[in-house]
Every structure is written in C-alpha cells, then in structure tokens.
Amino acid sequence: xxxxxxxxxxxxxxxxxxxxxxxxxxxxxxxxxxxxxxxxxxxxxxxxxxxxxxxxxxxxxxxxxxxxxxxxxxxxxxxxxxxxxxxxxxxxxxxxxxxxxxxxxxxxxxxxxxxxxxxxxxxxxxxxxxxxxxxxxxxxxxxxxxxxxxxxxxxxxxxxxxxxxxxxxxxxxxxxxxxxxxxxxxxxxxxxxxxxxxxxxxxxxxxxxxxxxxxxxxxxxxxxxxxxxxxxxxxxxxxxxxxxxxxxxxxxxxxxxxxxxxxxxxxxxxxxxxxx
Amino acid sequence: xxxxxxxxxxxxxxxxxxxxxxxxxxxxxxxxxxxxxxxxxxxxxxxxxxxxxxxxxxxxxxxxxxxxxxxxxxxxxxxxxxxxxxxxxxxxxxxxxxxxxxxxxxxxxxxxxxxxxxxxxxxxxxxxxxxxxxxxxxxxxxxxxxxxxxxxxxxxxxxxxxxxxxxxxxxxxxxxxxxxxxxxxxxxxxxxxxxxxxxxxxxxxxxxxxxxxxxxxxxxxxxxxxxxxxxxxxxx
Amino acid sequence: xxxxxxxxxxxxxxxxxxxxxxxxxxxxxxxxxxxxxxxxxxxxxxxxxxxxxxxxxxxxxxxxxxxxxxxxxxxxxxxxxxxxxxxxxxxxxxxxxxxxxxxxxxxxxxxxxxxxxxxxxxxxxxxxxxxxxxxxxxxxxxxxxxxxxxxxxxxxxxxxxxxxxxxxxxxxxxxxxxxxxxxxxxxxxxxxxxxxxxxxxxxxxxxxxxxxxxxxxxxxxxxxxxxxxxxxxxxxxxxxxxxxxxxxxxxxxxxxxx
Lengths: 276, 236, 258
Fold this sequence. Notes:
The complex is a heterotrimer of chains A (about 280), B (about 240) and C (about 260). In chain A, about 35% of the residues are buried. Chain A has a domain at about 70-220: MetI-like fold, CATH 1.10.3720.10. In chain A, helix 9 (about 145-170) packs across helix 11 (about 185-215) and helix 12 (about 230-240) packs antiparallel against helix 13. Chain A has helices spanning about 5-10, 20-25, 25-45, 50-90, 95-110, 110-125, 130-135, 140, 145-170, 175-180, 185-215, 230-240, 245-270. Chain A has 13 helices and no strands. Chain B is built from 9 helices and no strands. Chain C has about 260 residues and is of the alpha/beta class. In chain C, the strands form 3 sheets. In chain C, strands 4-1-5-12-6 form a 5-stranded mixed beta sheet. A 5-stranded mixed beta sheet of chain C has the order 9-8-10-7-11, sandwiched between helices. A two-stranded antiparallel sheet of chain C has the order 2-3. The radius of gyration of chain C is 20 Å and the shape is globular. The termini of chain C are far apart. Classes of the chains: A mainly alpha (about 280), B mainly alpha (about 240), C alpha/beta (about 260). Chains in contact: A-B, A-C, B-C. At the A-B interface, helix 1, helix 3, helix 5, helix 6 and helix 11 of A face helix 3, helix 4, helix 5, helix 7 and helix 8 of B.
C-alpha cells in the first residue's frame, strides 16, 4: 500500500493546453470570475494591508528561503531515493531490509515529530559531547537550517523511495533479459536500461511529490528557520492581524504550486519521447 | 534522575498516561475528521460528476485550493476562522453564538482538508463503475437515492478503498499539525513532556512508536478489509 | 457496508457531542499551551500548575467566577481571545500600547525586571555594544523580542515559540544569550541544566515604552463588567494576604513590583 497519492490527486491541474479559449470561457465562468475578482477587490479595499510595505523585504527573504529549501531537499532527497528504491528491488537482504524499514518509519510518523526529534533531540545531546563544540562542524550545527534540510530531505527520500521501488520493479522483465542477452554488465544494465526506464515511470509522480514537499516546508518554521510561513507568523504576531497575512500566504503558496506544476509539465514534455 | 522507563510509566510521575491521553485525542480527531471528510468527499464527488456547471467549478476551486496550500496554513486559517464563520452562520439563521471546543475545531479543520482529497478519490472510484450497471438501475426505475445506496456505493467501494486507505494514513499524521494551534494531541503533549523533563529523545521516540503502531495496525486492518471487499471481483 | 455507515454515524455523533459539549459557559481562562515555569506548566497527570494558575484561580474564587483553565498556543492566543475561543488571558502577558489597540487589560498583577542569561564565563554585557554580533534567543511576539530588536540592532535575533526552547538551545550552545523575564530565567538557572551551563549577566536598561507597566489579564474590548471584577479580585487578594500566600512557595521576594 503506497502512502503517496496518485499524481492526479496530489497535483492540481491547470487547465490543459488543449482546452481552447472559447471552451474555457463559458458564460457562467465569466460570472464566477467576476464574482472572484469582486471578492479580491473587496478584500483589498476593506481588509488591512498597511503592514505590507513594512514587511516586504522580509517576505521576499522568506520566499527565497522556501524556494531554496524546496529545491535543495527535493534534489538531495531524490538522489537518496534512487538507491533506497533499488536496494528494495534487487539488493541483498542486508540492504533491502534497512531500506524498507527506513521507508516505513519515515512514512509512518508525522514529519513534524521527525523535525522536532532531530532538532531538539540532538540538541539535548550536544551538552554531553564536548567534542562536538570543538569540531569544525559546530558553526553549522549551531544553526537551524541543517536540521531542517536533513529532515525534509529524509522525508522526500522516504516517500519517493517507495515510488522508486515500484518504478524499478515495474521495468518489464523482457527488457532486462534482452539487455543481459546482449552481454551487458550489471552496471551498464543499471545505467542504460533500469535507471532511464524507471525515471520515465516516476516522472509523472515527481510533480505530486514535489508539491507535497513544498507544502511540508512550513513545518521547519517551528525550529526557528525563517522561511515564508515564519515571516507571516511574525507579521501576525507583531500586528495581531489574523486573516490578512494568512490569506496572502495561502495565495503565495498557490502561485508557487502553479509555477511548480507548469515547470514539471515543461520538463515532462521535453523528456518523454514524442508519441508515435 | 529517573530512567527512561520510569519517565514513561502510566501514572505520575511518569508521563505515559499523558502521552496516551494525547494519543487518544489524536485518534478521535483523526476518526472524526476522516468521517466528516468522507461525507464532504461523497457530496463533492457527486457534485463534480452530476452537478451543474457552477457547482462543478466551485468544487474545482475548493479541491485545487486545498491541495495547493500547505496543510499547516489551512489548519491555522481554519482553526481561527472556523468558529467565526460558524457563529456568523448561526447569527444569520437567528441562533446565538456557541463555544466551539478544541476537539470540534480540530475535527472540522481536518475534515475540510481531507474532504478535498476524498472528493477526488471518490470521483475516480465512481467513474470506474461500468456505465452499464448504472444504466440498468435507471432502466429498472430506481430512484436516485436508492440507486446511490444499492448500486453506486457498493460498486465503487473496492475502487475507492486503496485511495481512502492512503487518506486515512495521511489523516492520522496530519493531526500532528494541530500541535501548532495548541490542541493537546500526541505531538504537543510529547513536546510538553519533553520540555518539562528535558528528556527530548525518549519522548519523541516514544511518540514515534505510537504513530508507527497506529499506521501499521491500520495497514493490517485495511488490507484485510480490502481483501473481503474484493471477494467476487475479477482478479487484477 | 453497514459497518462503514455505522462508523460514519459514530463520527458524526462524536463531533456533535464535541461541538456541543463545551456549552456550560464557565469563564475560560487561557494559559499558554507551552510550559512556562514557574508560572504555568503541565504536570505528569496533565493538570496545569504554577504561580499564575494559582493566582488566576484565587482571583476567580474571590469574585465567585466559575473558571476553567484552558491551554492555548501562545502564537494564537490573542486571535483566540478575539474570536471567542477563550475569555481571559492569564499567560504572563505584559501590558503594552501595541496590544492595547487590539485587546483590553486588567490592572497589573505582577511586574518583574528583564534580564539576560548567557553561558558561564562569557563576559557578555547586557548592552547594545555587549550584544553586538551575538545570537540572542527570545520568545516570539513578546516584549523581549521587541526590546531586543529595538535596542540590540547588531545582534542576530532568533525567535522561539516558548522560552523553554530558547533555554534548551542556550544549553545546547546554539544561541549565545537569551533575554526574558528575570523570574523565568531564575527558575531556569536553578534547574540542573541551567545551573550547569549558564549564568545571569544582569538586567537590561529599562524602557517602559517597550517593556510596559507589568503583566495583566487580557480580555476582549468592551467587557467592562468582567474587567471591573478582575480588578476587584486582584485588589481583594492583594489585601487579604492570599497573594502573599500564593507567592511564598514560589518566590522569596515581592513579585508584585513597584
């Protein structure tokens, strides 16, 4: 049973390119769109936005932090997911079993708990190991972002590792046998057949996983990393305005998701062979 | 200094009882939120399939919004706005304001989030029913509600179950986010216990074991249920 | 099929019970859901104890109010008040002009100096120069955060949801210093972790505009009856000795302040 949602459920669809403009703009849609615009205008006019100029720079810095976290942890996570998936399909027991356990634990416990375990759990051990404070790593271990990056990376690796397992297992037997018949070595087989074929299969699920990853990034705000959510939390706490910052924050994530889905569609179009 | 097992003892000064009470809260919110989420999903799926164009578009906005905005943001937003909206609605129909308990608010928040995902799962499952079955029911003159109860619901369940199982597992983990709004579920009480005793590792690991146990038990039960449902279905 | 429907029914029933359950209308007095010893923290049986909890109960008792202690996340404690989830804030909330724009306060019920704690032998000074280039941890959206941002512009400020976490990171060496209420810091310095690692480096220069006149009960604007009752309650327990009796086990000085 896979914990990852099928792509079409996890990733919201933009109107597909094949929908022509006239199809999309039906009369009732125009009315709905007008109502929507009216709501936005009403929100802009009646709600309080006077805090916006003051926090503009902070919001941009938070946005940058969120994007950076997303890109770095998704790439690192994917790089770990490949061996984790592969180990479960072909690896010997000593690799397969730990890989499967890793996926189960990551997917069976809340990410928030994992983040707190890493940050506060490890932090509570530091005072007992003086060597750590003398080590060259200490300036980094003092900061919060290594823990956030580690937790998010492991989370992505756990979920995507499970998807990769399915992808590796799903490469048709015949292709592998054919490659063997051509005398390919194990490594060549992996590089030329298994990886490309598996990657092709997971590509459509990557967008969903990455959107989920974007939606996980706010959790690191709880360990003092000032990404987008943390910046807006500060706005809320400074000004005691509740809804306006949250609404703008939701809108920003909506736009980020849309951009993400669009970028992946470009990637997918480029990487998948044109249909015959 | 008390050792690990003393800290987890069920009665004070051990914190095991507090942890289990938090765990029970988590389960209650998960069950309640998932149940209401299913109801929302059922209505949403029917609306998306059989509703008018306006209903369809509004539902599309709902599911897109919920799936694109982080759960944490939604939970904070709904947790604060939920009671306001409810009381606004009640005052419109002429009733006084009510106090919303933390548990009720938590269930509401989880339900709204899971409802969007459930809508998509159930819509897919209903679409997977062979049209002939529904047409046959119509041909026999079945009322829409009777048809829904006797034909659509049972025929769709085997298709919906894998997706719903995933949703249940996600729901159990999403309840942890309620810690951020101060609801005393497992993750928050764990942090309180850890903060009070300074034994962060033991408590976070203990909570992890509880969550894992819930996931694995659910997996086991759901797989059994799925096997039972699939009796009499063509293999594959 | 039947099991599914009955499960759904159970869920519906449970939620209705949950929604309707809290309708008996006692006064909901909120403490921060994050432990803040010695003022309010949960014990191993899940009850909230501490000086501030005792004090709030005493005020309620003096005015014959039916009070129930309700933990709420500090992060959302003011929205929770304005959206009617709670009725009174008793979470060591300092009275500040900024907060008074949104909510009302009772008279103060305690006031203590603000201090900074750092690692033993650090030699830091609680001044703008002394804090320059240091990492200071503070609890988010407190007078201490405002103070540090205003007076120590050259320090790196790290904000925590709770003072407890800031203390924990000071022990772990992730921050150089933390500024907070002197009493909360004293309690930390008396703990095993705190006494091993850290010491107070003194009080910060006063700034009434930021630090405010003290701590009061927070309540919704316009609830003047409740405000009058709380003020009368504070006055009553100050006069009949209850205040001192409550404070004695916790503090060896007068926490009410000047």
